[in-house]
Specification:
single chain; Growth Hormone, Chain: A; mainly alpha
Length: 436
């Protein structure tokens, strides 16, 4: 009886932390997936090539590599709760830097603001993800992270639509070809449209700082094991090192699917290119719903990864071999609605969102399993894997410049194959060498 009461008490005390963390994950998604609309927009107002426009993903995601370990040190000093407030404050600074950037249409200013935003998100992610693993049984951790993923990607569905409504709504023809004909004064006026949305974002972040600071979020300490098999540092745990590489691959293909789809659509002459990220995010939300329903009752976390690796590889082949002249797949699936259809290769880019949606929630509990007192360091190392979103899209951009935007999606295939390796073998490894 006492055990049942303790369980109910734990569930009730977890509700408020989950709601607050849910709001933070919404902010993660809103800020992150705004890049998908921002990239083709900045390409126009700053007169960039495809490769140059992908510096947006480079500076945004490289912050996760540069600042992950400093974030873990900050959290060790401040605690998770105060660390979250610090991360939000850093994001306010980055958001406000968009005002002089928009006034001057200066790409460097935009990139500095994006790096600072990425730094703030690094602090928040380093704190928030361990909360989700620890706030309940580890067997259902992927389900909880999937729930937060719906919130995160739900924001990703909304933000391109908000961006298009606030920035592009009264411009008439918003195809890349039409916007490229704007004169210098019109481009400056278009750039200044970014000011008001980012002011709103800064205000929302200040509200969240107060919410986190004065909330009842509990202090969470990782479980202390009696023995870690002699391991003295986080790099001695293959499951977390390989997990970080799996997340490196995953975030790379996630950003490619979410942030290059607008560029790809614009290249094909799709008029609603600024909203294409929403298609990817809808498929990702569908994937997270599958995770919530199926994990762990019907689908083990490792099997979710296996499915992701295989499905993602098939999507890459679909992108490469399908015709850019055909929209038959989306026409069949939703052509009877008012939702705009898209070329088949663009559809497969969006479908990548469904194929890899469960990678993030499945890797975290598998990688952190058994770390004990090294959990904070493991979390920081996994967060560093987000730098795949900086480097792999740049590789895509290089291939796109040298060849074309469609064939460049081959760069995603090795990423999905590594995710498959981690699912089959990598997550089981507990030592680099077997004891003799």
């Amino acid at each position: 009886m006492e055990a049942i009461l303790n369980t109910k008490q734990k569930q009730s005390t977890s509700v408020i932390p989950m709601i607050i963390i849910g709001l933070l994950f919404f902010i993660f998604g809103f800020v992150t997936w705004l890049n998908g609309s921002l990239i083709p927009f900045l390409k126009i107002i700053c007169q960039l090539s495809t490769f140059q426009s992908l510096y947006v993903t480079l500076v945004f995601y490289i912050a996760y590599t540069v600042m992950a370990l400093p974030s873990s040190w900050l959290l060790a000093r401040t605690g998770y709760k105060n660390g979250m407030a610090c991360g939000l404050a850093v994001m306010v600074v980055g958001t406000l830097l968009f005002i002089p950037a928009a006034n001057s249409a200066n790409y460097v200013f935009f990139l500095i603001g994006l790096f600072i935003l990425g730094t703030g998100l690094t602090i928040l992610q380093t704190a928030a993800n361990p909360y989700l693993v620890i706030l309940g049984p580890k067997e259902s951790a992927a389900m909880r992270i999937s729930l937060m993923g719906i919130v995160n990607k739900g924001a990703g569905v909304i933000v391109p639509l908000v961006f298009s409504a606030l920035i592009l709504s009264d411009l008439g023809d918003t195809s890349e070809q039409a916007l490229a004909t704007l004169d210098e004064g019109q481009i400056q006026a278009l750039s200044e449209r970014l000011i008001l949305p980012y002011l709103y974002m800064a205000g929302a972040l200040v509200f969240l700082i107060a919410l986190v600071k004065f909330s009842s979020l509990p202090g969470i300490e990782p479980e202390q094991p009696q023995d870690n098999n002699g391991q003295s540092g986080i790099l001695q745990f293959p499951q977390v090192v390989l997990g970080a590489l799996a997340l490196f691959a995953y975030v790379g293909v996630e950003v490619i699917a979410g942030d290059t789809i607008g560029l790809f659509g614009a290249d094909l002459g799709v008029s609603n290119f600024a909203t294409l990220t929403s298609y990817t995010m809808v498929f990702m939300v569908l994937g997270y719903l599958i995770g919530i329903i199926c994990i762990p009752k019907y689908l083990q976390q490792k099997n979710a990864l296996i499915t992701s690796g295989i499905a993602g590889s098939l999507c890459v082949f679909g992108i490469i071999v399908s015709s850019t002249e055909s929209s038959s797949i989306s026409g069949f699936l939703w052509g009877f609605t008012t939702i705009a259809t898209i070329p088949d290769p663009v559809f497969f880019v969006a479908l990548m969102g469904l194929s890899h949606a469960l990678v993030w929630p499945a890797v975290w509990p598998l990688a952190l399993d058994g770390l004990g007192k090294f959990t904070a360091q493991g979390s920081a190392l996994l967060i560093m894997g987000i730098s795949g979103g900086a480097l792999i899209p740049m590789l895509y951009g290089g291939f796109a410049e040298a060849n074309d935007t469609q064939s460049a999606y081959w760069v995603a295939l090795p990423c999905y194959l590594f995710i498959l390796f981690y699912a089959v073998k990598g997550h089981k490894m507990r030592a680099w060498k077997k004891s003799k």
